[in-house]
Design brief:
The complex is a heterotrimer of chains A (about 525), B (about 325) and C (about 180). Chain A has about 525 residues and is mainly α. Chain A contains 23 helices and seven strands. In chain A, helix 16 links the parallel strand 3 and strand 4. The longest helix of chain A is centred in the middle third of the chain and has 19 residues. Chain C has a single domain, classed as Globin-like (Orthogonal Bundle). In chain C, helix 2 packs across helix 4, helix 4 runs antiparallel to helix 5 and helix 7 runs antiparallel to helix 9. Chain C is elongated. Classes of the chains: A mainly alpha (about 525), B mainly alpha (about 325), C mainly alpha (about 180). At the A-B interface, helix 3, helix 4, helix 6, helix 9 and helix 11 of A face helix 2, strand 1, strand 2, helix 8 and helix 9 of B.
């Protein structure tokens, strides 16, 4: 029998610092740190190259024979198309300001999770193929050849980045790892290297209009069952118009809000709000998805999926579009939609039919964020609230990465929360607003086989929540992102089990005093409101 | 290795200059041809580099927003951190270029034992910012001060800068503060790359080489000014002859001068091919130099691709039966 | 009591070496980062140092219940449970304390006077190890519970709406 190892032997993984540096360290695909590969059927639906059966743990990834040429040509094409890529490849001075800003690095300690090194994975190949110094000096100039091991490393680490842009806030040249990751993922797609959790929702969204693949009647059923829940709690009956022509406003929200816990409570909040103000709106089964996993695939797929929003708005003849609480959806709407699928000259500049406010900030794109819309309603005194209905909760607010760092949406959600809740506490200042920490599961990494990595990546966010939980008794983490609502719930169950997750409009729905409603004894989750039974 | 090689490279450069001037008497090469060539490489290189960047379009408007966007009139918009107009962009870029705004934000995960129990905090870490700022500003000061040698009459701002810089009034010739500051800053930036494990890990030879080079340039300059007290008049006669494209080699100037000139030439020639292009790159960074107004004004992508979409008509064709059964309105019955 | 006073006296050194030993359990590249001059430069390092301080004092105090110890262990083991460790590697850090103390207090421990006391102390460390394994298992179970929960909540809803949910397959995907 072999000698039993001592604890010291067991725990020493490799104490000797490697002298070779990071370039020669091959990736070890440990369970929980990578996602399953994209299914061939999803690739075919999206017309992406090299559909096949494979898994990252396979030795042979079944790449096309000329994969090096494909990547080289793809890289060259993207350098011509994206100034961002060129600048970000050339200007980094490796000052290290970004190093400890990444949640994956903070949670794992893996040095290749430092944003600078993540970008160097791509940059080293760029130097070899596209710079004089790299061609001549090779490794001395930080250049290296693209090999299969390097490609595997790209797959591993560019699917350990959630494109949250926190590092880019601190970079003196604004180098945005999200942009680098997007480019790397586009390159990987060229040779058919990708993950299923991004591609299957994208493919379903293409055919059925939403990530979950809900067919039109199912989408309708789901909404109707939520309306029944609303009626149970409030006594208010709501009919949601679907595919209705001639409404003022088309409302689009992530399909998870219609389907997944706890997003459904946020959805109830939207519906109560629209009922409260008598908004003439419609939802669509064709454009039934706010989210856009094309953003995590490539710019063509993003454009494909996004096209449904304007197409449906035009077909239904609405005046403008209202968008629900979602993170990456708003990155697409705010920074990409008009450029890709505009101009939306068939729509009008958004004007609130209730307050008359014209949303000049959305004059071209013609799409308004629901927190902008609601904040305006509150400011004009159009909503009646009883904030005591949220008294059973101590609330904090998580700035979702995309609305924070790709939009600058900070004040509206806070204003709303403070109007509808009496107990609001901010997390430490360096973990919120533009410095907010990611949930650790963005960009389509919210899949269960990736759980360990998600828990590591979410540790910095969870630490901040734990802090306010212990200090102020916070038990509700509110946010304006559908992925957050799903993944932060799981994250909290692991790190801070006493804290639940909600959207902002769930709190609005709780507080709204509806005309003709029953006296509320529970919140939208059917949880009892303390002291509300004997309250007049 | 990644430290040693650049160090040896700089030492070799110094020796080449010394051997070339003292041994081979190639004063003309080192004093005239190489500086001209280096300047040409620098100018052409930088221009080509910037043109190369500028030739790639900016398909999407992707500023990193670090402050409140402009929305409703009663919500205070942050025009510097999330600019909504050109003025804001200029302000943001100015803060970035002159004061390193983003580096100033730098923080460090830390913990505080004094409060109730141990507590994780994210404290600010301004050292990198301070050293970076000190280095770049003193470099600029020194560069501008050197224009004394390349202008006749001397540019009006040069004496002013010299007065400012020599405010301490120590020694003859007067001690320039920037000479000390740049040495200290470069030393700090070097030490940081050695001491901090994270930064050491990410550093490449190309990160140490410019540091050593600039350190050697500063030391050779200081050596001439304060120790050998080089003959300023003949230096100026020489530099002016370079400016007037009528180069005449100076007489009685030590070889350190040639070392200095050669190292500066190396820096100039190296500049466009290295990370030092960040000086120009920062102005073109799309996450910083664009206004956050993409919903108010349409941004154009010159290569906006045509993509195959799934139209409503196709959708209705596929799902007409279930839509009809569910009572959803249809375009075609 | 002699051993205890020595352990108290040497607290800082022992904790430092223990911390070092734990940090060394990380792959060399990560270890270098956790092993910053400031050992608290990240949440992971912070939690480790925070936890082992408590555990050490708890071993000396001999008052804490198993539950309290488990609670203290939790935050640190919870992190190790989602990092790249095998189960034995994840909890081996407890046993490293023995080695650290032996190295630090070799003269004291070898003397006969404290051998009995040392034996009892070792037993307490062993108990700590057992508790940490319980905590580790609880965390791993939680991970799988979360995984199945996420999976089930999807599958359940799919089943619930059987025949009504579009599934991507060769047959049902449109001609495009």
């Amino acid at each position: 029998m072999a000698k039993t190892p001592s604890p010291q032997e067991l725990s020493k993984i490799n104490h000797e610092p490697s002298n070779d540096g990071w370039m020669e360290m091959p990736v070890d695909f440990r369970p929980g740190t990578w996602c399953y590969s994209g299914k061939a059927s999803a690739l075919e639906t999206l017309e992406l190259p090299n559909p096949r059966e494979w898994q990252p743990t396979d030795e042979d990834w079944k790449l096309p024979d000329n994969w090096e040429t494909i990547i080289y040509e793809g890289f060259r094409e993207r350098l011509k198309k994206f100034r961002s890529l060129k600048i970000f490849m050339d200007t980094c001075v490796r000052c290290g300001a970004c190093a400890d800003k990444c949640h994956f690095f903070l949670g794992s300690g893996d040095p290749k999770n430092m944003p600078v090194l993540r970008a160097e994975l791509l940059r080293s190949v760029y130097r070899k193929d596209f710079t004089t110094a790299g061609k001549i000096l090779g490794k001395l100039a930080g250049a290296r050849k693209l090999t299969k091991d390097v490609l595997k490393e790209w797959f591993y680490y560019f699917y350990q980045c959630t494109e949250c842009r926190r590092c880019s806030v601190f970079c003196p040249y604004g180098i945005d790892t999200a942009e680098v990751t997007m480019m790397a993922r586009e390159l990987l797609h060229l040779v058919g290297v990708n993950i299923n959790w991004v591609l299957e929702p994208a493919a379903k969204c293409f055919t059925t209009g939403n990530h979950l693949g809900l067919l039109p009647h199912t989408f309708k059923d789901s909404i109707e069952s939520l309306c029944e829940d609303i009626e149970d709690v409030t006594g208010i009956h709501i009919d949601v118009p679907l595919n209705k022509k001639g409404a003022d406003v088309l409302f689009i929200t992530p399909s998870a809000d219609v389907f997944a816990d706890p997003g459904i409570y946020t959805f109830m909040g939207y519906l109560l709000l629209f009922e409260h103000i008598g908004l003439n709106y419609t939802m669509s089964t064709y454009a039934s998805e706010g989210g856009n996993f094309g953003l995590f695939t490539n710019n063509e797929t993003m454009k494909k999926l996004n096209s449904k929003m304007y197409a449906e708005a035009k077909r239904l003849g609405v005046k403008w579009i209202l968008g629900g609480e979602c993170g990456h959806m708003w990155r697409v709407v705010h920074q990409y939609m008009d450029t890709m699928n505009g101009p939306a000259d068939f729509l009008e500049v958004p004007k609130s039919p209730i307050t008359g406010t014209v949303f000049e900030n959305a004059a071209s794109t013609k799409m308004v964020h629901i927190t902008e819309f609601t904040a305006d309603l509150i400011k004009h005194g159009k909503l009646k609230f009883d904030p005591r209905r949220n008294d059973h909760r101590h609330v904090t607010f998580h700035d979702s990465c995309n609305p924070a760092r790709a939009m600058g949406l900070f004040e509206e959600p806070r204003y709303i929360i403070k109007q509808v809740c009496n107990n609001f506490h901010e997390m430490p200042e360096n973990t919120i607003r533009e410095q907010t920490f990611c949930c650790g599961s963005g960009t389509g990494l919210n899949t269960d086989e990736y759980m360990e990595m998600r828990m590591r990546g979410g540790l910095p966010r969870a630490s901040a929540v734990k802090h306010v939980h212990q200090k102020h008794g916070v038990d509700l983490l509110s946010c304006i992102c559908a992925i957050d609502r799903a993944t932060l719930s799981t994250l909290m169950q692991y790190w801070v089990p006493a804290v639940e997750v909600s959207g902002v409009h769930e709190l609005v729905g709780n507080a709204l005093i509806m005309e003709g409603e029953n006296e509320r004894t529970t919140d939208l989750r059917d949880e009892p409101l303390e002291g509300m039974e004997d309250d007049e | 290795m990644k430290i040693l090689f650049p160090l040896i490279a700089v030492i070799v450069l110094v020796l080449v200059a010394l051997a070339g001037v003292d041994g081979a008497h190639l004063q003309t090469l080192f004093g005239i041809y190489i500086p001209y060539a280096a300047l040409a490489v620098f100018l052409v290189g930088i221009v080509l580099r910037v043109i190369g960047w500028a030739r790639s379009p900016v398909p999407f408007r992707i500023p990193t927003t670090c402050g409140q966007q402009k929305t409703l009139p009663w919500i205070k918009a942050d025009n510097l951190e999330s600019p909504h107009n050109t003025l804001g962009v200029i302000g943001r870029m100015a803060l970035e270029v002159f004061f390193f705004r983003s580096l100033f934000r730098n923080l460090k995960a830390d913990y505080d034992e004094n409060r109730t129990g141990n507590e994780l905090t994210y404290g600010s870490a301004k050292w990198l910012w301070a050293a970076g700022l000190a280095f770049h500003w003193s470099f600029l000061f020194i560069f501008l001060r050197h224009l004394r040698f390349f202008s006749e009459p001397i540019f009006f701002f040069v004496p002013f800068l010299e007065t400012m810089d020599g405010l301490l009034q120590i020694g003859v010739p007067r001690l320039f503060m920037t000479d000390l500051v740049i040495l200290a800053a470069v030393t700090f930036l070097f030490a940081r790359r050695i001491v901090s494990p994270q930064v050491r890990y990410i550093s490449l030879p190309a990160d140490f080489f410019p540091l050593f080079l600039i350190l050697a340039i500063a030391l050779s300059g200081i050596f001439m000014r304060y120790i050998t007290k080089v003959d300023i008049v003949s230096v100026k006669a020489f530099t002016m002859s370079l400016v007037s494209f009528n180069p005449t080699l100076p007489k009685g100037i030590g070889s350190v001068f040639y070392v200095h000139i050669f190292l500066v030439s190396t820096l100039f020639a190296y500049f466009p091919f290295s990370k030092l292009v960040h000086m120009a790159g920062v102005f073109l960074s799309p996450t910083r130099n664009l206004a956050n107004n993409s919903r108010a004004k349409r941004h154009i992508n010159p290569w906006n691709p045509d993509v195959k979409v799934h139209t409503y008509a196709e959708y209705e064709d596929e799902f007409r039966d279930v839509m009809k059964a569910a009572g959803l309105p249809l375009e075609k019955e | 009591m002699k051993l205890k006073s020595c352990l108290k006296e040497k607290r800082a050194t022992i904790l430092e070496r223990w911390y070092q030993a734990i940090i060394d359990t990380y792959p060399s590249e990560s270890a270098k980062h956790f092993n910053n001059q400031d050992p608290f430069a990240n949440p992971v390092g912070f939690t480790i140092s925070d936890t082992i301080g408590f555990l050490y004092d708890s071993l000396l105090r001999e008052e804490d219940t198993e539950e309290e110890i488990a609670q203290a262990l939790d935050s640190m083991v919870r992190i190790r449970a989602v990092q790249d460790f095998s189960p034995s590697q994840a909890v081996a850090f407890v046993f490293q304390l023995k080695k650290v103390i032996r190295a630090e207090l070799s003269g004291v421990i070898d003397s006969e006077k404290v051998s009995e006391e040392w034996g009892r102390f070792e037993e307490r460390i062993d108990r700590l190890a057992l508790v940490s394994f319980d905590v580790y298992m609880k965390c791993r179970e939680k991970i799988y519970e979360l995984r199945t929960h996420e999976f089930k909540s999807r599958a359940w809803r799919l089943l619930e709406r059987a025949n009504m949910v579009g599934v991507i397959s060769e047959e049902s995907s449109p001609n495009c």
